[in-house]
Amino acid sequence: MRVLGINALFHDPSACLVVDGTLVAAAEEERFSRRKHGKRPVPFSAWELPEQAARWCLAQAGLRASDVDVVGYAYDPALAEPAESLGLHDPWDHLRQMYAREAPGFLAEALPGLDPAKVQFVRHHVAHAASAAYAAPNSATGSVLVLDGRGEATSHLAGRRVGAELQTLASQRLPHSLGLFYEDLTAHLGFLRSSDEYKVMALASYGSPRMAAELRRRVYSTEDGGFRTTGVDWTEFCPPRGADEAWSPAHADVAASAQLVLEDVLLDLARWLHGQTGDELLTMAGGTALNCVANSRIVREGPFSRVWVQPAAGDAGTALGAAVYLSAMHGDDPAPMGGADLGRGWSEAELEAWLKTAAVPYERPDDVADAVASALAQNQIVAWFQGRAEFGPRALGHRSLLAHPGHSGNLERLNDVKGREQFRPVAPMVLADRAPEIFTGGPFPSPYMLFVHDTKPEWRNRIPAVVHVDGTARLQTVDAAAEPLVAAMLRGFERRTGLPVVVNTSLNTAGRPMVDDPRDALECFGSAPVDLLALGPFVVRRGSVFGRGDGR
C-alpha cells in the first residue's frame, strides 16, 4: 500500500510517504521553499500545499502521483464548526474550511496524475495521535496524548493504541486550548505566534512563577480528562513587549508562571489517561509535545514508566500520522520510526559537484570526523552537513552547528552567529552510553532532544556552554550504531579535550529554515562567521575562502 500524507491547512506544511507500512520519506515544505514554517498560519494561506515536499517524497521512492493508492489529508472539514460557535475570534475561518473541502482538487492540480478520489480526510488530532502511537518503538499497546492549538472543533485527544486500532478516550472542545493559551502568551511577549513558543519556554527559566496561583484559577484540568483555559487577559499580568524591546523580569515571571501551570495540567491529563488504560507506555504528539520541560515533568512525576515523543510533534508530523493511519486502516502493519533522518540526502559525487560549482577551495581529509574533532578542540565553530536531513524542528547531527562546550562564551558566540536572542540555550550532544555520567533527571536514551535533564554539579563548570541558567540541558544522546560518523567525531573530540560532549544547535540563522541542501549550506557558511564546513567527506575552511580575519 502506497500512502502519501499531507499536512497543509494551518502551518508547517509537509509531506510523507509510507509504503507497505514503512516510512520511506518525510519533509517539510520550508526546506524547499526557504520560507520559515512554509507559510503563516492564517486562513488566506490555507490553500498552499507542500507541493515540492510531496513531489520529492514520491521521487525518493521512484513513484509518480498516479502510483499512489491513497492520500491522507490531515484535517477533516466535515467535522469542523463555524469559529464563532466554538468561541473563537477568527472571522475568516470559513475561508480555511472552504480550502480544506477543495483540497482533493488542489492536490490533483499540484500533482499531475493524482486521482482526487484517492484523497481521504483524516481527523487532525487522529493524525497527530497516529504519528506517535504507530511510530513509537515497541508500541503495539500504549496510551497517546495529543495537545495543540486547534483541530476541527477540539484541541486535545487522549487515546490508546491496541494493535491496529486507535481508540479515542477523551477530547477537549474549543475554545479551551492549552496550545492557544501558550500561543497567546507568545504573541503578548513580542514573539511570533505558532513559531516562537520555544522562546517562551527558554525565557521561563529566567523568571519566578509568582503569578501561577492566579493563573490556576483560569487554567485547570477537569475530572473527565479535559481542562479549561478561560479568561486569561495577559495585560493583567504584565505589559505587552514589542518585538524589538528588551524583556523585563515581569515578562520572565509570567513566562515561568504559564510554563508551570501548563506542566501541572499536562500532568493531570497524563494521570487521568493512565487511570483509564493502566499502560506502561505513553506516546505524545501535537505542538505542546515540543515543550521539553513539560515532557520531563511527565517522565519524572507521571505514572507511565516509558514516555516517547514523536520528533516532528508539531503540525508537520500530521503528514506522517495521516499516512501511517490510513496504511494501518488498509491492513498494513505499521513499522516503528527508525530515526528522524527522513529528508533529502546527496551522494559524495553530488556534494563534490556542488563544491566545484561554487568554486571554493576544499579538501577531502582521510577522516572527516577526526578533522572536525580537531577543529572543535581548537574552539572553531563547525557547520556539519551529513546524510539525510532531519524531519522536525531539531538538528540531530545531520544539519548542525557544532562547537566546544567548555568555553562559556560559546553560547553568546553561537547566538551571535545565528542572530538570535541571548537567552536562548544550545544543546549538548553525547554518546548514549556516556550520558548518565554527566546528566540526570530525565530519560535515557534521548535521541530527539525532546526532554531536559539536570547537569550534574561536577560537570556544570566543565561544559558551561550547554548548561542553561537553571542548570538543565536539552540533551541529545547519540547511538553509535545508528550514527557512526557522529560517534567518531565525539570520540575524537574527547581524546583531545577530555570532554565527551559537543555543542549542537541547528544549522541556520534566525528567521530562516534549517539548512537542507548543499547550496543552503554554502550560503549559510558564506554569510555567517563559521570556521569550517563539513559537507559529507569534504571540508571547506573559512581562512581558505575568505582569508583570516578572526585572529587565529
UniProtKB/TrEMBL annotation:
InterPro entries: ATPase_NBD, Carbam_trans_C, Carbam_trans_C_sf, Carbtransf_dom, DHBP_synth_RibB-like_a/b_dom, NodU/CmcH_Carbamoyltrnsfr. Residues 373-542 form the Carbamoyltransferase C-terminal domain. It comes from the Bacteria. Residues 2-70, 117-324 form the Carbamoyltransferase domain. It holds the Pfam family Carbam_trans_C. Belongs to the NodU/CmcH family. This is Carbamoyltransferase C-terminal domain-containing protein. The lineage of its organism: Bacteria, Bacillati, Actinomycetota, Actinomycetes, Cryptosporangiales.
